[in-house]
Design goal:
With 630 residues, the chain is of the alpha/beta class. It is 50% helix and 11% strand.
Length: 630
């Protein structure tokens, strides 16, 4: 009999026990009276020649004094009576009438004797011994046994040790004596520096004598810091597989409960178990859930979290040292972690796992392309060039989407078309329905070609990857640019080129259709332009105000003062407007100088709806004016 069947049987017994205990405890539907009522009903049914009705006790006494009562049968300890009466009111015909006798009517028997009434008392039917034992002993035992069973086995049924009330203080960490995660260091690419740090820890666990010979100690804690999807959890899986030592994995949120003391008890239980299996690794994912800076809030929930953090600090480097337990934490919010958690002795190393560069993206794509059949026309190098800012998880998802599209199109290999479509879906969104040939479609075509022409003419802008009129996400048309290399540092000329190119779409609408026909389609472009220009003034010192940082990353002002504050704010707005107006003039000159090629490309774009970068550059090559200096 499997576990699910046992659970169903116990639930059935549990419900039956609850029903019977409820009936007995709360006397639901008057259990004893119900039994007696059945007896009375049976007595009435024996005499088919008479009818039955009800009578009040006062009316019964009047009938008794008038001599109209012939016989009385008492039930339920004289609480109920069946009276046989005959009177002129009843047509001198005998009838059986039910009477409820109130409590305290102790002289009824004496009155019946005085009037020489034939009466009889019927005792309550005695319950069987089995029923008495069942209702008083067996069913409560089933009830208690079922509760104990559910509490002790809730972990097995739910798969979560923390869900059982009996295990509230137990560690919720998953334990593997010899973990086989299926991930090795060979499966990780794009984060070579972080991988080298972990390879050293694995070497320490496998050959500790090499390090102890020169007095080195194994790090107590390693903190992985980086944006989501960069491979922090993947590194933990790899070290678990490569080190071949006991491995505990848990999420930081699993320690925080509403009951004060539960989280601290779970921390103690986790490190107690870990110390019994040294050397071992404890991986705490999203450690910021429990390691947030203390004193940042008020209330019971915050007190519980702070107690949990205090216990974690004590276990990692307290008076009692835990030797051989390496704690690996992962977070993308290192800025909110408590300073005591980050000091050496707790987390000795902080490893930053950044977004991969171009070579890193190529390596990641090669890892995820191993088990996928790609056509010869697919270039992972070109795909890596097209996906700056993608994390390892994003690249894995891109190739998986391409494989799904190949299956949808019933292809045996993944071609360049599926890869490009998957990239377009991730960057721009799912493709929508093609627009009809209307004035709006023509206006959008000019808008997108304006972006492309301006970006192509400028020296410091990226090359055009694709122009399309196929709607994706919230955009009715898109123009993609591909950088030649990852831009970690951006120059002033590059920022100005971005502003000019972004304004190119709206300027083209003005030049071709006139000011009255300018649409709201450039609203997002204007927001981007304003943001870039403002950062140039307030953060990068690229304006006439001078090399002064006036705002931080959160756009919070870094200067103080009343009137001077307002004056500087006015100067900021003035400089932002100057930059944007200057860039708009340059974009207008480029559009006017290249109006002929713009019209030609728009006609081709309206016919084909999508033009790739090589085709666009071939069309532009012989018609554009010399690059404009910005």
């Amino acid at each position: 009999m499997d576990r699910n069947t046992i659970q169903k049987i116990l639930i059935g017994l549990f419900l039956i026990a609850c029903i019977f205990i409820g009936l007995k405890t709360f006397n639901i539907i008057g259990f004893n009276e119900f039994t007696e009522a059945q007896t009375v009903s049976n007595t009435v049914d024996l005499n088919a020649n008479v009818s039955s009705s009800r009578m009040t006790y006062g009316r019964f006494l009047e009938y008794l004094e008038m001599g109209w009562i012939k016989q009385v049968d008492l039930y339920d300890n004289s609480r109920n009576a069946i009276v046989q009466a005959s009177s002129p009111e009843l047509g001198n015909r005998p009838q059986l009438i039910r009477v409820e006798i109130p409590v305290g009517a102790s002289q009824l028997i004496q009155k019946l004797k005085e009037y020489n009434i034939d009466f009889d008392a019927h005792p309550i039917p005695r319950k069987s011994i089995f029923f008495t034992i069942a209702s008083n002993l067996i069913l409560p035992l089933i009830f208690i046994a079922s509760l104990i069973f559910f509490f002790q086995n809730s972990e097995n049924f739910s798969g979560n040790s923390g869900s059982s009330p009996m295990n509230l203080g137990k560690s919720p960490a998953r334990f593997d004596q010899r973990p086989d995660t299926g991930i090795s260091f060979n499966d990780i690419a794009g984060i070579d520096e972080a991988k080298a740090e972990f390879e050293e820890i694995v070497s320490f666990l496998k050959e500790p004598e090499r390090y102890t010979l020169v007095g080195a100690k194994i790090p107590k804690g390693v903190l992985l810091v980086g944006p989501p999807g960069t491979g922090k959890t993947l590194l933990a899986k790899a070290i678990a597989n490569e080190a071949n030592v006991p491995f505990y994995s848990v999420a930081g949120s699993e320690f925080v409960e509403m009951f004060i003391g539960i989280g601290a008890a779970r921390i103690r239980d986790l490190f107690k178990k870990a110390s019994e299996n040294t050397p071992c690794i404890v991986f705490i994912d999203e450690i910021d859930a429990v390691g947030r800076e203390r004193g940042a809030g008020i209330g019971g929930g915050n007190d519980e979290r702070e107690q949990t953090l205090n216990q974690l600090l004590t276990e990692m480097d307290g008076f009692k040292e835990n030797k051989g337990v390496i704690v690996v934490g992962a977070t993308n919010r290192v800025d909110i972690l408590d300073a005591a958690l980050l000091r050496p002795g707790r987390f000795d190393r902080q490893i930053t796992v950044n977004l991969p560069d171009r070579l890193g993206r190529i390596g990641i794509l090669k890892v995820h392309a191993k088990n996928k059949p790609f056509d010869k026309d697919v270039s992972l190098v070109q795909l890596a060039n097209r996906t700056p800012g993608f994390s390892g998880a994003d690249l894995a998802n891109l190739l998986n989407e391409a494989a799904i599209l190949a299956t949808r199109y019933k292809k045996k290999t993944i071609t360049k078309n599926e890869v490009n479509e998957a990239a377009d879906r991730i960057i721009g969104g799912i493709a929508g329905t093609t627009m009809e040939d209307t004035k709006n479609k023509k206006l959008i075509a000019y808008h997108e070609v304006g972006h492309a022409i301006v970006g192509s003419v400028l020296e410091n802008h990226d090359e055009v990857e694709k122009i399309t009129l196929i709607p994706r996400g919230g955009a009715k048309g898109l123009t993609w640019f591909t950088p030649e290399e990852d831009q970690t540092l951006v120059s002033r000329s590059q920022l100005l080129a971005r502003i000019i190119t972004t304004l190119g779409g709206r300027v083209t609408e003005q030049v071709v259709f006139g000011d009255p026909e300018v649409t709201t389609g450039a609203s997002n472009d204007l927001q981007q332009v304003t943001n870039i220009a403002r950062q140039m003034v307030t953060r990068y010192g690229m304006s006439n105000i001078g090399p002064i940082a006036l705002e931080d990353e959160n756009n919070e002002q870094m200067f103080l003062g009343g009137e001077s504050n307002e004056a500087i704010a006015d100067r900021i707005d003035t400089e932002v407007c100057k930059i944007i107006n200057h860039c708009e003039q340059i974009a207008t000159e480029i559009i006017l100088d290249n109006r002929v090629i713009i019209d030609l490309i728009v006609e081709k774009l309206l016919d084909e709806e999508t033009i790739n970068g090589d085709e666009f550059r071939q069309l532009v090559k012989n018609y554009t004016v010399l690059p404009t200096k910005n």
